[in-house]
UniProtKB/TrEMBL annotation, chain A:
Species: Marininema mesophilum
Primary location recorded for the protein, binned into one broad class: membrane
InterPro entries, alphabetized: ABC_transp_permease
This protein's UniProt keywords: Cell membrane, Membrane, Transmembrane, Transmembrane helix
Protein name per UniProt: Ribose ABC transporter membrane protein
Location(s), subcellular: Cell membrane
A Pfam family annotated for this UniProt entry: BPD_transp_2
One MF annotation (Gene Ontology) recorded for this entry: transmembrane transporter activity
Automatic annotation (TrEMBL), chain B:
Name of this protein: Ribose transport system ATP-binding protein
UniProt entry tagged with the keyword Cell membrane: yes
Annotated compartments: Cell inner membrane; Cell membrane
PROSITE patterns given in the database record: ABC_TRANSPORTER_1 (PS00211), ABC_TRANSPORTER_2 (PS50893)
UniProtKB/TrEMBL annotation, chain C:
Gene3D superfamilies for this protein: 3.40.50.2300
Name the UniProt record assigns to this protein: Ribose-binding protein
Places the protein is found: Cell envelope
The organism's place on the tree of life at top rank: Bacteria
Boundaries of every Periplasmic binding protein domain copy: 39-291
Keywords: Signal
Main location: other
Record-level Gene Ontology MF annotations: carbohydrate binding
Lineage, broadest ranks: Bacteria, Bacillati, Bacillota, Bacilli, Bacillales
A GO-annotated cellular component: cell envelope
Signal peptide: 1-27
């Protein structure tokens, strides 16, 4: 009986980890045979730069989902932080300081989510559904519904510049990826996140400050969303009040594609990065192949479904 | 086949399973098991965890199909392709977890999926109600069938399950650990119902760990061990010792190996006036170093609530706690752990363990801080500790990275206890530490508890298993309705006195 | 249980208080300006500068002509628009201006206005059901044609072109695209290399353009179904250090600035303020019993540097 369990245990975890990667490779191979422009160095960096926004949101979302929660407000946090940052710069504040203010705003918004969920005992879905609308509304109020231009060179470089031939947004996601991966694997905080998602009651009884961990996780999600908002603003040289609408769904899709369980406790950050890449590569490939707008949505939906179904069949 | 029974009936058996064989990935879980059940008989199926009881039942109820062997019901051969097919052929199974929809009424639950209809879509409420009432009367549950199932007690819900099974014209009823969650009076009611069904010629297979119950209720007993059927005995002609011997394959001299070891009396833990509004009121007690204080009481007497209060899971409304003579404040489990308390909860899967994580991670969860340096977990040290602990506790798993969810019940319980050992606690709260654990593992857990007391740790042992409380405790505190109602010394306590106190018949003297 | 009941009581009190407050206030107002026309305006969204300008135009006109304008923002939510329209009917407006979030979904709301005998004028987006007094909108097909013709002039009748489409299935995307393709018809030396959706969003316009530039190294012009996408495409072109003519649509504040700066070649100005103004104006005329036409196309204009 034990041998059987071991084999199954190993097979499940191996497939769960390799499944998303295999899927990504399959899509890449498929696209590179159809389109010759696909595998060029410049296109690879292009795709990486494009996924940076979704990847950052999905990183935060991974932490939240690992605790068994969900954060629907990330798109709105992205917008409000971006608009605030651009607005501050418009008032003559230094770009770095404005960005810091944007990040802090993201942290505050995230912690509001966390407190609503823990102290207010509101279900994560409901709490963040409400703040999604709330933060979006504040974005519109602050910007009066109009885009705010921010074309200061030292700021714009954060989204458009290069460091050693590598786009700066790509460097951002690599830094966040390694730091997060390390935190999840090697620190008590990371362990606590997994334990909390696996069994909240057991985590509490093991002396983990579950409230603190949750608030921290939503705060981090807010910070990542704010960072994404600032990078997007820099990429566009302006902050749009409507930017980030619907991004929470792409982030959730990336997390799920990466094999992280929506019920919490199981998952990894590498999977999320791969999930974000799958979405990015698909978007890029569909553009390169000039697929008609109606079919694009069909293809994207089908890929997500296939990935999730494959994942399901491995687990049972 | 050398244990043919002559005594109950000579007629052909209601159910006969012959040469049932089942293996998973080359592991033989059932090895040519024979089993017979007469009409009007309660037949106990006994065995340790992993002996093959559940597999045999799953074969009988159509969840698994056997690799070899035959099943005859009323002399007719049956091959079940699905649980539904088994049900239709007259095999009803009452699982430990009920298959009831709490928001629906009793009547709706009984007829779920096969409602009486007028033509298409119109439900014949009146007819369903009438029939439901009939079935409820048959088992002696006098409740309005339009009551929502969620509003019933656990015992009553179980009765509904039985009624539901019977309404399929079940001649064979399988009961899997039916008393695990029942109170004393509910248990009595259940037994009365089962006896009534026995008179109506229903054949019943009764699975339980509790030998006393089996002795009281069952006519015959079949023991399984390692997938083989070891033997069948008439209850009247066997003894507990023999049964235990058959189950374990060796003789267990005494079930509760408690040796009194309080070397010098020194108060470890003192609790005064612990109160949580509406749940626990003014409970006081103390435990010496090396002492086991048993805590008895009926379900709902406030014992688990007491433990949660002591450990900081719930907020205390009043009360003081002293540890080694110093007063401590506990507002969060973290405070309790730091002070030196450990808590093994009643509900392992629900509260004690993170099933989706590894043995190692579960072990080190409460004491992660001691493996952390500069904010990072020291993996090597952690691995070494986990390996050591696993060997020490004799946990059977593929390694420290195996997910706890894949371990057997006894091994899970060892992890749940073991995770506190790294922490060297001073006081242990053990809530039902042996529930659902087989006899062999039970003994190991008792020995572990003894070792803990030898090291001067104080233990609060909460248990609904009276022989266990009486056998293991140095003193026994009885709770009722959130209050402490009695305290006995080991010598003065017996089952009757404790039960009396717990159910309200005893004196209020301490 | 007590808590629940007292909670209900509180809510009931609050609501009734608010109702009393509202009714007494409006009653007063009605006494004061008895003859003031009450116009209800259900907008699809204010989450977009275009509609903000449209509202501003309507408000200005209403103020000037002495009408009361009640604006409701549906936040791009068809369900919210339905209840907005219900609310406006309850407020007993004399005429309803509706800027539908969705041509199909709005039909039910318009029917209920029909039932309440309140005349309806649709603005910017048309409806596919219900009775409508008139429709006011800029002519998107004409605008698309305008953009196409301008592009042909600038390119000298030959070159390679990319089209960035709006949200698939929307009328604006359909009409603007249709006009653009019509304009290019018969000009065989102008080739459309790709038509890809970027959902009217700036960020999406940027990434789709980035992707297309990976494949198409030799592009002379881009037509985007709105300015947001056009400005996004401009960012991509700038980052790729290319010289490509971009034509947008809508003439938003940002886009007009970009045209003045010379980065955006041209944009088609819808005149949202003009649409808003005309909407109120036609409501006034209709309420005086004048006969109104079925459709008032609001003219568009090409905005270039000169």
């Amino acid at each position: 009986m034990h041998r059987e369990m071991k084999a199954r245990d190993l097979r499940v975890s191996w497939l769960q980890k390799m499944g998303p990667l295999a899927g990504l490779l399959l899509i890449i191979i498929l696209l590179s045979t159809i389109s010759h422009d696909f595998l060029s160095m410049s296109n690879i960096f292009n795709v990486l730069r494009q996924i940076s926004i979704n990847a950052l949101l999905a990183f935060g979302m991974t932490l939240v989902i690992l605790t068994g929660g969900i954060d629907l407000s990330v798109g709105s946090i992205l917008a409000l932080s971006g608009v605030l940052t651009a607005g501050m710069m418009g008032m003559g504040i230094e770009p770095w300081l404005a960005s810091l203010i944007g990040i802090i705003a993201g942290a505050v918004m995230g912690s509001i989510n966390g407190l609503l969920i823990t102290k207010g005992r509101v279900a994560p879905f409901i709490a963040t559904l409400a703040t999604m609308s709330l933060f979006r509304g504040l974005t519109l109020v602050y910007s009066e519904g109009r885009p705010i231009i921010s074309d200061d060179y030292s700021f714009v470089i954060m989204g458009q510049g290069y460091f050693l031939e590598i786009p700066i947004p790509v460097i951002w996601i690599l830094i966040c990826f390694f730091v997060l991966g390390f935190i999840l694997k090697n620190t008590p905080f990371g362990r606590h996140i997994y334990a909390l998602g696996g069994n909240e009651e057991a985590a509490l009884l093991a002396g983990i400050r579950t409230v603190g961990v949750k608030v921290a996780v939503y705060t981090l999600s807010g910070i990542f969303a704010a960072l994404a908002g600032i990078i997007l603003t820099a990429r566009l040289s302006s902050a749009q009040p409507t930017m980030g609408t619907g991004y929470e769904l792409s982030a959730i899709a990336a997390v799920v594609l990466g094999g992280t369980s929506l019920t919490g406790g199981k998952g990894w950050i590498t999977g999320t990065l791969i999930g974000a890449m799958i979405i990015g590569v698909l978007d890029n490939g569909l553009n390169l192949l000039n697929v008609s707008s109606f079919y694009q949505q069909v293809v994207k939906g089908a890929v997500i479904l296939i990935a999730v179904l494959l994942d399901r069949s491995q687990k049972t | 086949m050398n244990h043919i029974e002559r005594g109950i009936t000579i007629t052909a058996p209601l159910l006969s399973m012959v040469g049932i064989h089942k293996s998973f990935a080359r592991v033989h879980v059932l090895k040519h098991v024979d089993f017979t059940l007469q009409a009007g008989e309660i037949h106990a199926l006994l065995g340790e965890n992993g002996a093959g009881k559940s597999t045999l039942i799953k074969v009988l109820s159509g969840i698994y199909s056997a690799d070899q062997g035959r099943i005859h019901i009323d002399g007719k051969e049956q091959v079940f392709k699905s649980p539904r097919a088994a049900l239709v052929a007259g095999v009803g199974v009452i699982h430990q977890e009920f298959n009831l929809v709490p928001h629906l009424s009793i009547c709706e639950n009984i007829f779920l999926g096969r409602e009486h209809l007028f033509g298409r879509g119109w439900i014949r409420w009146r007819k369903m109600r009438r029939e439901a009432l009939l079935w409820l009367e048959k088992i002696g549950l006098l409740v309005d069938p339009s009551c929502k199932v969620g509003e019933l007690s656990i015992g009553q819900q179980q009765m509904v399950e039985i009624a539901k099974a019977l309404s399929f014209d079940a001649q064979i009823l399988v009961l899997d650990e039916p008393t695990a969650a029942l109170t004393q009076s509910e248990k009595k009611a259940l037994f009365a119902t089962l006896c009534r069904l026995r008179e109506k010629q229903v054949g019943m297979i009764y699975i339980s760990h509790r030998l006393e119950e089996i002795e009281e209720l069952c006519d015959r007993i079949t023991v399984l061990r390692n997938g083989e059927s070891i033997g069948t005995r008439m209850t009247k002609e066997t003894s507990m010792d023999e049964l235990v011997g058959l189950m374990v394959g060796r003789k267990i001299q005494e079930q509760f190996p408690r040796e009194l070891t309080i070397k010098q009396p020194a108060e470890r833990l003192r609790v005064e006036g612990l109160t949580q509004q509406g749940k626990v009121s003014q409970v006081s007690f103390s435990i010496q170093a090396g002492e086991i204080l048993g805590m008895a009481g009926l379900i709902g007497a406030g014992r688990t609530e007491m433990a949660n209060l002591l450990f900081g899971v719930q907020k205390q409304d009043a009360g003081e706690i002293w540890l080694d003579g110093k007063q401590i404040r506990i507002r969060h489990p973290r405070d309790a752990i730091q002070a030196g308390l450990a808590y093994v909860t009643e509900d392992r899967k629900g509260e004690g363990l993170v099933l989706s994580r590894s043995v190692k991670e579960n072990f080190t969860l409460p004491s992660l801080a001691s493996f952390t340096k500069g904010g990072f977990i020291r993996k090597q040290q952690e691995n070494e500790m986990a390996e050591k602990l696993m060997r020490q506790l004799g946990i059977r798993s593929t390694g420290i990275e195996q997910k706890v969810g894949f371990l057997s019940g006894g091994n899970q319980q060892k992890v749940a206890i073991g995770k506190w050992l790294l922490h060297q606690p001073k006081v242990w709260i053990l809530d039902e530490p042996t529930r659902g654990v087989d006899i062999g593992a039970k003994r190991e857990i008792y020995q572990l508890i003894n070792q803990l007391t030898e090291q001067g740790m104080a233990i609060l042992l909460i248990s609904s298993d009276l022989p266990e409380v009486l056998g293991m405790s140095d003193r026994i505190l009885v709770m009722r309705e959130g209050k402490r109602v009695a305290l006995f010394n080991r010598e003065d306590a017996d089952e009757e006195k404790v039960m009396q106190a717990a159910s309200g018949g005893g004196s209020l003297l301490a | 249980m007590m808590k629940k009941i007292s909670g209900f009581l509180m809510v009931a009190l609050l609501v009734s208080g608010m109702l009393v407050g509202c009714t007494s206030k409006s009653a007063l107002e009605n006494e004061k300006k008895d003859k003031e026309l009450k116009v209800g305006f259900s907008l699809s969204t204010l989450n977009n500068p275009f509609f903000v300008s449209l509202r501003d135009g309507a408000q200005k006109e209403a103020k000037q002509k002495g009408a009361e304008l009640i604006v409701a923002d549906a936040q791009d939510d068809t369900a919210k628009q339905a209840s907005d329209v219900e609310d406006l009917i309850q407020k007993k407006v004399d005429i309803l201006l509706i800027n539908p979030t969705d041509s199909k979904a709005v039909a039910a709301a318009i029917r209920s206005a029909n039932k309440a005998k309140i005349p309806v004028i649709t603005v910017d987006r048309a409806t596919e059901g219900g009775k409508v007094l008139s429709h006011i909108a800029s002519d998107n097909v004409e605008g698309g044609k305008m953009a196409g013709k301008y592009m042909l002039d600038q390119l000298g009748d030959k070159g390679k072109v990319i089209e960035l489409e709006g949200i698939p299935g929307t009328t604006a995307a359909r009409d603007r695209g249709q006009g653009f393709h019509k304009a290019l018809q018969g000009h065989n030396k102008v080739k459309i290399l790709a038509s890809q959706p970027a959902n009217f969003e700036r960020a999406k316009g940027l990434s789709v353009m980035e992707n297309l530039l990976q494949r198409e190294k030799d592009v002379q012009a881009v037509f985007a179904h709105n300015d947001e996408m056009a400005l996004g495409a401009l960012e991509a072109i700038r980052a790729a250090k290319k010289e490509i003519m971009v034509v947008g649509f809508d003439a938003t504040e940002d886009a007009v600035k970009a045209v003045k700066k010379g980065t955006l070649s041209a944009t088609i100005a819808q005149k949202p303020e003009e649409i808003g103004k005309q909407a109120v104006d036609i409501s006034m005329r209709a309420s005086k019993g004048e006969k109104v036409k079925e459709f008032y196309p609001v003219s568009l204009k090409l905005v270039t540097k000169k």
